[in-house]
Design a protein that fits this description.
The complex is a heterodimer of chains A (about 425) and B (about 280). With about 425 residues, chain A is α+β, with helices and mostly antiparallel strands. Helix content of chain A is about 20%, strand content about 30%. Chain A contains seven helices and 24 strands. In chain A, a hairpin with a 4-residue loop joins strand 23 and strand 24. In chain A, helix 6 packs parallel to helix 7. In chain A, about 55% of the residues are buried. With about 280 residues, chain B is mainly alpha-helical. Chain B is built from 17 helices and no strands. Classes of the chains: A alpha+beta (about 425), B mainly alpha (about 280). Chains A and B meet through helix 6 of A and helix 1, helix 2, helix 10, helix 12 and helix 17 of B.
């Protein structure tokens, strides 16, 4: 009996060690703080050890309570600095700093080059999503991105915890360890609450987004919509699915206050339902898109938002530099076009906005990137008159902002760039 | 996936999941084309409950509330009385002012699930439509107390309902909420309530509190100046315009040249110019 115990003991001890089942992943990144989240198979008090030198992680944050759903907010970080980290559970090291690192956003108002990655409707958990990811990984290896944005429908079919495990956490493990993730809620994020449970959606349970202006901007009081700053860019995330889209609703009131007080020269908005699309969704007939266009675009354009990113329609569509189109597509006219050329820096030249900062109604580019997991099949029309480019191809966006220049590249799953445009602000 | 009426034989939990999945399937593709697609399915298999419910949901998404209700009418009662379809029917009923029917549905659902927040929230909306603000407040309070954190739209709806009964009590309640979470929509609502009540000084005080928290207070200060001016407080309005100009001066260079900032500066300077004597 004693012998049997001795034989079993090491196995039991080994089995008692928690192991990672999700993450780590990075959330709510600000110039001085970031949330590190991860999941383990067994409950334990986790620790994040971190520092600027991967060989010498000098600081630690430890959890007070045992849990399997871990979240630690690391504060007191230096802006614009690369940090390395590792996750520990008791004496076990669950990750190493070799592939766990992040860069804090640069100080507010400073203008170092910024790159970020944008995925829309990527939640297919299949070879399409993997190809889009791998194309980005090649680009990222040359010039790294600093954070990533998901435009909703991140995990098909129901946005359940299991769907997310497969389509997000198992699909982008390396990216999630290194790039803080921001996201907006899509329709598929809302399909997994069981009737009568009054439950929180898995999306909101697994992600942490600012409610109190933790990363800049006006506090929204909700994770459904929020804003954050990164260098000289102010980002606004809207909820086109669950929150009121009325002009007197809480989100519209907040948006107005938030944009009115933005200090950044660049302002970018993102939400799931596109205001303009003739892809797998037709924005002339769908309420969510119609209401976003009618009620929110006047606010966004009125405060000079430069770029709007959406998903939902499983295609890539990119508008000209436009303004003031809030009706159905047949009413789009020349009067709505501020610059009808390509905006391509190599051909017709970039779009130019004369004012250096935020200026109302000087033109906005609208991008639908809903093809990071699947495309629209053979019957998509792709004929919205606001669009300069419409493609029924897989891809994601790589966005670069460098001082007064913003470049957007539509990166195909093949590694090719199928569309590129530039916006320049201020005097040439 | 096509689910035949035999669905009625399976348990309620599985049914709930299937309905949720049906909602999911209903969300694919162009909504209008999806309706046509579902119509074709229903022409050949009118008893296909999943397609029927998906089309009802799609119709609702297109603001076709009568069609939504017509499809819901054709569902087997075992499905129609489940939470998801019943909530859809309540929402559609509210849109077309079939309040008595909504009332019956709400009562039936709450009998089965007394604490269901989604249903309580719909009942609050129903009470607002029925011009019973006191009863609506009771439901809103139940939902707010059970939500962490409460949805800002819910708080705003509660504040607006309370203001119908007693604007002062609504303001007091807003202040309690703001003590928990500063919410710009509620702050704005409070300012609007003060404006409506011609309580100019209180509106100005609240705008001071808001502007103190904002990274750029100039637009808030301009609003304060306009409210004071409209209320006949000329010297205080002038002070607010001067404060606004000082805030504009403190902006970083790239913001000072913004057209909307230049416009605001012009407005403030014009307001401060001495008025010609009559």
């Amino acid at each position: 009996m004693k012998f049997a115990f001795l034989l079993l003991a090491p196995t039991c001890l080994w089995a008692a060690e928690p192991s990672l089942t999700r993450g780590p992943y990075l959330q709510m990144s600000s110039t001085t703080a970031v949330n590190v989240r991860w999941r383990t198979d067994k409950s334990n008090k986790g620790t994040v050890r971190f520092g600027v030198n991967p060989e010498e992680l000098t600081k630690t944050y430890a959890e007070a309570e045992s849990t399997t759903e871990h979240e630690v907010r690391i504060t007191g970080l230096t802006p614009g600095t690369q940090f390395f980290y590792q996750i520990e559970a008791g004496n076990s090291v669950l990750t190493t700093p070799k592939d766990c690192f992040f860069r804090t956003p640069p100080p507010a108002g400073s203008t170092p080059p910024i790159r970020f990655w944008v995925l829309g409707d990527s939640g297919t958990a299949d070879k399409n999503a993997a190809a889009v990811r791998d194309a980005f990984a090649t680009v990222h290896a040359k010039v790294p991105a600093q954070f990533m944005i998901m435009l909703g429908d991140n995990a098909y079919l129901k946005g359940s915890d299991e769907d997310y495990q497969e389509a997000v956490f198992d699909m982008y493990p390396t990216q999630l360890r290194q790039l803080p993730l921001w996201s907006c809620v899509g329709n598929h994020e809302t399909y997994s609450v069981k009737p009568g449970k009054n439950a929180v959606l898995p999306y909101f349970a697994m992600f942490s987004f600012p409610t109190k202006g933790e990363a800049g901007g006006v506090p929204s009081g909700t994770e459904n919509y929020y804003s954050f700053n990164h260098g000289n860019i102010h980002f606004v995330c809207l909820d086109s699915m669950l929150s009121s889209r009325a002009t007197d609703g809480a989100m519209a009131k907040w948006l107005q206050a938030d944009l009115q007080t933005s200090l950044q020269p660049w302002n970018i908005a993102f939400f799931h339902h596109p205001p303009y699309s003739k892809g797998t969704h037709n924005t002339d007939v769908e309420n969510d898109s119609i209401e976003m266009r009618k009620n929110f675009l006047p606010i966004l354009e009125g405060y000079g938002v430069d770029l709007v990113l959406c998903g939902h329609s499983h295609v890539y569509e990119r508008s000209k530099l436009i303004d003031g189109h809030y009706g159905l597509s047949p009413t789009f006219s020349q009067a709505n076009i501020r610059d009808g050329a390509s905006g391509n820096s190599e051909t017709t030249g970039p779009y130019r906005k004369a004012a250096a900062g935020m200026a109302p109604h000087r033109g906005t580019v609208y991008v639908v990137e809903g093809s990071s997991g699947k495309t629209g099949g053979k019957d998509v029309k792709l004929n919205h008159p606001a669009m300069f480019v419409s493609l029924n191809k897989l891809g994601s966006l790589v966005v670069d902002v460098n001082k007064n220049r913003l470049d957007v590249n539509m990166l195909r799953e093949t590694g090719e760039v199928d569309d590129q445009f530039t916006i320049l602000k201020g005097a040439p | 996936m096509s689910l035949k009426p035999s669905i009625c034989r399976i348990g309620p939990l599985a049914l709930g999941c299937l309905i949720s999945l049906c909602h999911t399937l209903g969300a694919h593709g162009d909504g209008h084309e999806r309706i046509l697609e579902l119509t074709q399915i229903l022409e050949t298999t009118p008893g296909d409950a999943t397609s029927r419910l998906a089309r009802a949901s799609a119709y609702y998404g297109h603001s076709q509330f009568v069609e939504t209700l017509e499809d819901l009418d054709k569902l087997p009662v075992e499905i129609a009385t489940l939470e998801s379809p019943a909530l859809l029917r309540i929402r559609a009923c509210l849109q077309v002012h079939r309040h008595r029917e909504a009332e019956n549905l709400v009562s039936a659902l709450l009998k089965k699930q007394p604490g269901n927040l989604a249903v309580l929230r719909e009942r609050a909306r129903l009470r607002v439509f029925q011009e019973k603000p006191a009863e609506a407040l009771a439901d809103y309070d139940l939902v707010i107390a059970a939500s962490a954190p409460p949805d800002p739209d819910l708080l705003l709806a509660r504040a607006r309902t309370a203001a119908q009964l007693d604007p002062s009590a609504a303001l007091a309640w807003i202040d309690i909420q703001l003590g928990k979470t500063p919410l710009v929509a509620l702050e704005e609502e409070a300012v609007s309530l003060c404006e409506k009540a011609k309580n100019t000084r209180e509106a100005a005080r609240r705008l001071d509190l808001m502007s103190a928290r904002l990274p750029r207070p100039e637009f808030c200060l301009a609003r304060k100046a306009r409210i004071l001016s409209d209320g006949g407080f000329a010297s205080e309005a002038a002070a607010a315009w001067r404060e606004c100009l000082r805030a504009l001066d403190k902006l970083p260079e790239h913001l000072r040249s913004q057209p909307m900032v230049s416009q605001l500066r012009l407005t403030a300077e014009t307001a401060l110019q001495p008025k010609p004597s009559p």
